[in-house]
Design a protein that fits this description.
The structure is a homotetramer. Chain A is mainly alpha-helical. Chain A folds into two domains: about 80 residues, Arc Repressor Mutant, subunit A; about 30 residues, no CATH class. The first copy, chain A, has five helices and two strands. In chain A, strands 1-2 form a two-stranded antiparallel ribbon. The radius of gyration of chain A is 17 Å and the shape is globular. Chains in contact: A-B, A-D, B-C, C-D. Chain A binds a DNA duplex through helix 3.
DNA sequence: GTGGTCTAGACCACG
DNA sequence: GTGGTCTAGACCACA
């Protein structure tokens, strides 16, 4: 894996270290990071994105305590081989549920139809490809 | 308007005052709160939801400074009568865009198809009705 | 709870933040900290033990992510009310198992009898009261 | 001595080199390794346990600097013949003291009686025989 | 080379 | 008042 795979948005209200953890969670769940794969070093990620190494270290540490990553002493952090990788589609969808529930509630408050919301979402997902 | 119309989730990472402001924004944009309508007092909202009155006051103050609400001396806060209410559908959809963009990005990281995500969203929007 | 209840050994190889978390785990499991009880603030603990507030904050954060503590926004950290508190004696004993297993293995390597080890342990536990 | 006599737990938080040194200390103190006995080569130990040779070398070096081992030029490392071997029982018990003190403190924090802890320890020492 | 810990201090967000 | 985030930099431990 390359440090450039991670996307960091420093201006986001979401803390950087959590952005990293959640991206890792998704990339691992989808198999884009496969079990055993070595992650870029803390210093590489920090240098590439111009953030503090401790911020990256904090993210890696959290991901480890969640069982997403494991520490190979002297080598770095690797994707854990605990079955967290390559979830089924329904498992991956479940990761989106909290966000989608919020969207559903907000749409209701806005009195928007499911069709209108979905057309908009479809457009955004097409654009992003 | 009744204090029970607002939904507060004290355990959410979203700060309470922002939950209130954003809900007001959506309820006003959709016309569920109409211009001139009087809001429940800070004390009522705070008492009903068992939250700190200062939090409600802060939300009302922010909403006022955005032009969503206006302060009627001696009567309380009311929905502003300056055209913020009853947005068009496209304006209301725009309020959902940031969230939908995030959903799109996360879906990409999870390698989920637009169809699968939309089916899930459709189900959630149906359920919530 | 008072900041003086925690014991910090800065010279120990065990990191300070983990000393705190594990002590909290034991004090909660034994009911010496009861569910809902407010912990001393990060700044109080840091000041009392002359350590960096971030170190304490890190410990509290970890304890929260383990479900031991919960954040009361604006009030501080409190012992979680998730049933982690007041474990049965067998549950509390289980928390000592890893250490006791290591003791057992080391005693074997030292060719020490169970009786000799236990007499020593009994003396130490008596002294500490 | 055979490389298989050492027990290595790569996943333990205890560093590997220290696991080796402390095991050597205990095996020598108890006379299971006798003075003058030749140890397996760095390469053998590293190969057998699939760990880095440098780690084994570091452990041997530390043990030598402590006087546990001595370097026989051209032959390898051997158990030192300077009275470190076959300690008395009280000397061997002293090697366990730091661990037992920690157990005593944790038991106090868990409000466990000396009897309960000792029954558990007795069971573990019996099992491991 | 790897990650981990701690400090000192600034600044923010929340109630 | 509370905790949270981030930075900059030093130092350590491990392989």
């Amino acid at each position: 894996m390359d440090a450039s795979l991670l996307t960091i948005q420093p201006a986001s209200p979401e803390p950087i270290y959590r952005q990293i953890v959640e991206q890792l969670r998704r990339l691992i769940a989808s198999g884009q990071l496969h079990a055993g794969e070595l992650l870029p070093s803390v210093r590489d990620v920090a240098g590439f994105h111009a953030i503090n190494p401790m911020t990256v270290s904090r993210a890696y540490g959290l991901a480890e305590s969640e069982g997403l990553l494991e520490r190979l002493r002297g080598k770095g952090m690797a994707v854990a081989s605990n079955g967290h990788a390559t979830h089924s589609q329904s498992q991956r969808l479940a990761l989106l549920d909290p966000q989608l529930s919020a969207v559903a509630q907000h749409a209701r408050e806005l009195e928007l139809s499911a069709d209108a919301v979905m057309r908009r979402l479809h457009k955004l997902m097409g654009d992003s490809k």
